[in-house]
Structure formats: C-alpha cells, structure tokens
Amino acid sequence: MPAPIKAKAIALAVDDEADILELIEITLERMDIIVHTATTIKAAKKQLACHEYDLCLTDMRLPDGDGLMLIKHIQQHHSNTPVAMITAHGNMEAAIAALKSGAYDFVSKPVDLKVLRNLVNTALKLKHSADNPTERRSRDTLLGDSEQMRKIRNKIAKLARSQAPIYISGASGSGKELVARLIHEKGPRADSPFIPVNCGAIPETLMESEFFGHTKGSFTGANTDKAGLFQAADGGTLFLDEVADLPLHMQVKLLRSIQEKSVRAVGAQTEAPVDVRILSATHKDLSKLVDEGEFRQDLFYRINVIELKVPSLCQRRDDIPQLAEYFLTNIATQARLDKPKLSKQALAALCNYSFPGNVRELENTLERAFTLCEDDIIEEEDLQLPAMIKNDSTDVSSVTDTEQPLDSYLGEQEKEAIQQALQQSKYNKTAAAKLLGISFRQLRYRLKKLGID
Questions:
Q1: What is the pLDDT of residue 411?
Q2: Within 13 Å of residue 320, how many CA atoms lie on the same side as its CB?
Q3: Which of 134, 234, 311, 446 has its CA 20 to 30 A from that of 60?
C-alpha cells in the first residue's frame, strides 16, 4: 500500500491574472494545500529558491516570458517538483510543447475545477513517489538484459512520472501492451484502472457507445445507461491498442475527448469530465497513414507527444535464452509437469531464428515443443522452426508468419479421439496414451489444454 500523502502540501501558482490566481488559491486551500503565488518568471524563480514545492502551476504567457522557460528552469534545478501548464482554451500546440518540455500535465482556461483537482492530486502522488523512491526496475516483468531492454526499462521509469500521451511503436508480438502496463504500474495512477482496448476489434457501429457510453433509450437496444471505456478508465490509464484501425469519424471524437478531458455519452446533453491518461500503440506506420490521409494528422500529433519504440526480438537475440527459460517454467507450472531442458542445438536454433512473430511467436514455439518433446529434452526438431528464415541474411519482411499456435490444431477431432481412447482404456491414461501413439506426458498436457477431466 502506498504511504498517505502528507496533509500540508505547498503549491506555487504563477499567473499574472488575479482572478486565475484567486481561483487556484481557493480550490487548493480547500484541498488542504498551502498556496504561494507569483506573477512573473523572475518572482517564481525567487520563490523556488526559497521553498521546496510539491507542485507548480504556471500560465503560458507571463509578463517577462512564457511558461516554457519556467518549466525548463524547474526541470533543470528542481526536477522533483511536478509542474503543469495553464493554457488558453484550444491551444493544443502550447499544451504539447509544455509536455515535451517536461510538464507532467496541462489544464485549459477557463479552468474546470474538477479537472484542476484531478491534476493536483496526480501531482502530489508524483512528488510523494519522488520523495520516497521505490524499486523502479522492471526486470522481473520486462525480461532481458540486452542494452535495448535496459534503455527501455529506464525510459519507462521516466515516462511513468509524466502524464503526457505516449505512442508505443513496434512489430506485432514485441510486447507493446506489456510496456504500456508497466508505464501505468510505475506511475501515480497505479492504484486506478488500466483499461486496454483493441481498436480493431470493436464493430464500427458500436464504437461511440463503447468508448463514451450511452444513456437509456438513446438507440434501439439501449435499455439502461452504460458507461464507456473512458469512464471505466477514469483516474487511470486507457491503452488504445491498434489505434491505426480507428475509422476517421471516431478519430475526430477521440481527439476532442483527449483535448477537452471530457466525454459525452451517446444520447447525453452535456459532457462530463474524465481524468484519463492515454497510451496508444500500433504495429503500423502511423506517419505513413497520415501522409495517405488514413489517419488524422492532428490526432497523430496529439497522441505522439512522446514515442517509445519497442525492439523486435531479432534485434535483441541475447535475451532469447532468458525468455525461453521463463516461458518453459510458466508452461510447465501450468501443465503441472516437469520443466524440460533445451538441448544445445535447440537453443542455438532459437538464437539464430529471425522470429517474425517476435516474443509471442517464441512463446508459441516453446509451447508446441513442450508437447512434442520426449524425456524432458527439447531437441531442434521439436521446435518445428521454418527452415527458410533461420538466418540473418533472409529478408523476413517478405515472409509470412508461418508459426501455428498449438490451439490451431487441437480441434474437435483430436478431442473426440482422446475421449474415445480414454473410454476404450477405461480411463487408464497410460493405456490411452499408447492407443493414441503419444507419450503419457503429451496426453496429460493435451488433456489440460482441451479441458478434459
């Protein structure tokens, strides 16, 4: 459990508009936060030099410069102090510039009090986690000791402290959702929901309702009010997987919700504020889709504030032995069988294979080999790797993913054959395995996979 936030936090509000400062003071003091104010960058720097603040809120336009100057100053000299930008309504360029400069979030004028309170609460959690550092390495989850993975784990720790939208790019099966989950779990929203959604799996006619919810009677079949994905993720993180599959009309609605930090349910008359961090991913080239008119440039600009590239498995071959051991341990544990060992030839074959399906394909390959191996030794032939893409010289971009997960050929006919063998042997599994021409180990594993008692 995280330690409670200290009661008397101190905030610095920087704005040359008296009414904005007064609004911030009143709102934060009701949250039991002491508020200091400044109307210029020079005055703010003096305050920062004299006090340690739990957060800072700064306007974009100040008499002696812009808020970006102050954000950069705080990043350089007071890096543990979260700072948020107050921007003019609709000025997303300023908001994005602030996030890129190191601001953890932004709020637009006229300031919505619920949005402001959410932003402040997140900032206090960020400051608290900085004052009480915890183990931020993710080696037990995001496996691999290669230089690429060390860099990604370090970057995840940094990105977790920001509220900026992150675009996670990488090939299918490379672990983009795992990276998104870690960004969520390492950040101040860890105790709130992480909601993943595959944008390509929602029927187009239901998208608006699924994302934003609907009211009772808003369309045929809407018998009750229903919350959408944004509402489900309120306070937490919404992960938009395969965001490139969103149709253009939904891209418009999504952009508005992200910019305004509010959603309107289908059939509702008003918008409701939501506090959601957006992470997105796709294996497609979004910039190319923008050039082709298939993806809105303004949405791409908004979700791609910071890009995190996840390397393909063939770019970090040194991690394959560690990943293989991890997957074999999990598979054996789930099957309640001894963990087999990889022969030297099998391990060499894995390390030389290009893995167009990435980490997901490695797991499926080992699951298949686990079933086929004898005497708890996985040999090279048990892996059933396509010979044509075993070396680096092959152009893997022209090769389709030929791997077949185990489930694809454990069909109804196999289930019937196993059940018949069990009946014929009066449920003596050793005898049933002999009738089927497979090992007892293979039979036990397939019984579990097929759900046969």
A1: 54
A2: 23
A3: 234
What is the spatial distance between Cα 262 and Cα 277, in angstroms, rounded to a whole number?
12
pLDDT tens per residue, range 314-328? 999 999 999 999 999
Q: Give percent of the chain with pLDDT exceeding 90.
A: 58
Query: In whole angstroms, what separates CA 293 from the centre of its chain?
Result: 26
Model-level pTM? 0.76
| Calpha distance 362→354 (Å, rounded) | 10
Contact predicate 12/56, CB 8 Å:
yes
Is residue 56 a contact partner of residue 85, using CB atoms and an 8 Å limit?
A: no
pLDDT in tens, 408-449: 444 566 777 788 888 888 888 888 888 877 777 778 777 777
Burial of 265 (0-12, 13-18, 19+ CB in 10 A): buried
Pairing of strands 237-241, 277-282: parallel
CA 420/CA 436 separation, integer angstroms: 10
Please tell me whether the peptide bond between 110 and the residue prior to it is cis, using omega within 30 degrees of 0.
Answer: yes
Structure tokens at 56: 């800072």
pLDDT in tens, 209-230: 999 998 888 887 778 888 899 9
Confidence of residue 405 (pLDDT cuts 50, 70, 90): very low
SS3 125: helix
* Residue 293 backbone zone (phi > 0: left; psi -120 to 50: alpha; other: beta): left
With CA atoms as reference, report the closest residue to 123 among 250, 256, 12: 12
Which among 298, 300, 305, 306 is positioned nearest to 287, based on CA atoms? 300
Task: Report CA-CA distances (Å) from 254 to 240, 246, 249, 263, 447.
Answer: 11, 9, 9, 9, 45
Cα–Cα distance for residue pair 79/235, rounded to 1 Å: 24
DSSP string, 403-448: ---GGGG--HHHHHHHHHHHHHTTT-HHHHHHHHTS-HHHHHHHHH
Q: For residue 363, give every residue at least 6 positions away whose Cβ sits within 8 Å of its Cβ, in sequence order, or none.
A: 327
Catalogue the long-range contacts made by 132-135 (C-beta closer than 8 Å, 24 or more residues apart). Answer: 132/3
